[in-house]
Amino acid sequence: MGQVAKHKESVMGEAFLPGDNLLTISRDGTLKKYSIKARKTIEEVNFDLPFIKLALDPKENKLVNIDYDGGVSFLSPDNLNDLQRFTITKGNLLSLAVLPDGRIFCSGDKGGLYLVDTTGNLILSWRHGQPREEDLI
Questions:
Q1: Are the C-beta atoms of residues 113 and 97 closer than 8 Å to each other?
Q2: What angle do CA 19, 86, 83 make, to 5 degrees?
Q3: Residue 4: per-residue pLDDT
Q4: Cα torsion through 35, 97, 104, 72, rounded to 10
Q5: Stated pTM of the model
Q6: Mean pLDDT per 10-residue run, the chain (137 residues)?
């Protein structure tokens, strides 16, 4: 039996991909694609970003992840080297959800809530129920 995508630091997120593959992200910024059938790691990329959460956007067939540095990143499951990252806040991002229309909703450590479109543009930012401008980059 193979070991599932061993990382140097904690695994922070995972997503099942088409073709019986599993993608995992680590706090050390490593992404690993694991073949469930072959029971081995088939691809590994290190972005040196402190990844926190990972989700699959089925509408756009993109992987979405957030990091401790206030960034939202988009990846193609077919090309993990093609990372597009956008900084949306000066604080840390902690949670992530992909809405049915493909927009991304995330929350930050300072009580901020952020709504981002599929191209990384910040649509709305709230803090304690109020729209905020000062947290935006």
A1: no
A2: 35
A3: 57
A4: -60
A5: 0.72
A6: 65 84 87 90 86 81 84 85 84 85 83 83 74 51
- Alpha-carbon distance of 23 to 8, in angstroms, equals 15
Gap between the Cα atoms of 15 and 77, Å rounded: 10
With a CB cutoff of 8 Å and minimum separation 6, the contacts of 62 are: 56, 74, 75, 76, 77, 118
Paired tokens of 81: 């080297």
